[in-house]
Amino acid sequence: MLSKICKTKNLLSVCILLLLVYMFQEPQRSLEASQRGLLLWAHTLLPTLLPFMILSSLVIRIGTAERLLAPFAPFFRLLLGLSPAGTYCYLMGLLCGYPMGAKLAADLYREERISQSEARYLLTFCNNPSPVFVTTYLLLQCLHMPQYTLATFAILYSADLATSLVFRIRYCPGGSGRKRKEIPPLPSIGKLLDISIMNAFGTITRLGGFIILFSVLSAALGRYLPRTLGNAVPCLLGLLEISTGLEAIAASSMPAAVRYTLSICAASLGGLCILAQTCTVLEGSRLPLRPYLEGKIVNASFTLLFSLLFLKSIQVI
Predict the structure, then answer these.
(1) Region for 172 from its dihedrals, namely left if φ exceeds 0, alpha if ψ lies in -120 to 50, beta otherwise
(2) CA distances to 191, 218, 240, 241 from 213, in Å
(3) Which of 39, 85, 177, 182 is spaced 20 to 30 Å from 259 by Cα?
(4) Each residue of 101-120: pLDDT tens digit?
């Protein structure tokens, strides 16, 4: 175990040194990559996620999610095996995108609104790319394939549902867990808002740091990876950071069907940058990362299968 930790630290040290060398050798490229990451955070992540983070914190603390979704509880219990609070986490994860689903699962578990088994179950399928990201960035800006919007949503959400079915029996979310805590006496509205805002800003700032760091790392890899790797380079960039990877895949010489399939698989997988963001939002919750990793692999596999079936049905491949 100690040798594995040492090897991991040595590899991390080498990566940090190489990244520093790149920043000194290519200051202009590093600056441009940092600016791209900052703009992505400021123009996309900050205005879309921050309000949801603040409001979701309020909703969880005052127990609004359970009351709002209680009438639909039998349907979502039958379909996904989720409680009303778990249903809220799932729906917000779909609407808001990475890493909102994982954050809500961790917050709900910390507040004892859901059991540990349901929290682990949610981690396997509640962290997803947002509809806005899929329609505007992935399909319109990168692939220029807006005609595939409905099909892409069907593929991604069907893969998500199939993933939930795979892990439902394993984690038994509807089984016995610790009893859900009653809503405690609430502090004043001002204090509640202050706590929610500060928590949301702390999380969103850390996420911005990861995006900027991985943007520079993606630029370094794109600069130094051997050109002999050919189309493997965009795939590697997609595994590292999805926004940079999707641009590289779209600009590659691969056939349109291959670019489409690889792009939506990269979006469903999330990449190492999303993995780092998920680690951040899970910090302090005592929830393991393994369910998330297993869920992403299964989800990406279903996405690949369903996208190939779709392309086969329209005789593109």
Answers:
(1) left
(2) 33, 9, 11, 10
(3) 39
(4) 999 999 999 888 899 999 99
Q: Which residue has the tokens 């790319």?
A: 129
Which of 39-48, 85-94, 253-262 has the lowest average pLDDT? 39-48
Give residue 184's pLDDT band: very low, low, confident or very high (50, 70, 90).
low
**Phi/psi-derived region of residue 142, left when phi > 0, alpha when psi is between -120 and 50, beta in every other case:** alpha
Q: Does residue 176 surpass a pLDDT of 50?
A: no
Count CA within 13 A, CB hemisphere, residue 274. Answer: 28
With a CB cutoff of 8 Å and minimum separation 6, the contacts of 90 are 76, 80, 82, 101, 122, 125, 126
Return the axis-axis angle of helices 46-62 and 189-224, rounded to nearest 10°: 140
CA angle 13, 98, 168 (to 5 degrees): 105
- Collect contacts of 58-65 with beta carbons under 8 A, ≥24 apart: 58/192, 58/193, 58/196, 59/88, 60/85, 60/104, 60/107, 60/108, 60/111, 60/113, 61/111, 61/186, 61/192, 61/195, 61/196, 62/183, 62/186, 62/192, 63/113, 63/183, 65/113
Taking the C-alpha atoms of residue 166 and residue 175, their distance in angstroms, rounded to an integer, is 16
**What distance in Å separates the CA atoms of residue 118 and residue 81, rounded to the nearest whole number?**
9
Q: Which pTM value belongs to this model? A: 0.84
DSSP 124: T
Separation in Å, CA 248 to CA 5, 83, 237: 33, 40, 7
Amino acid, res. 46? L
> Around Cβ 65, how many Cβ atoms within 10 Å?
23
Q: Which is nearest to 55 in space by CA: 211, 199, 182?
A: 199
Task: Name residues whose C-beta falls within 8 Å of residue 194's C-beta, 6 or more positions apart in sequence.
Answer: none
Between CA 73 and CA 36 the distance in angstroms is: 42
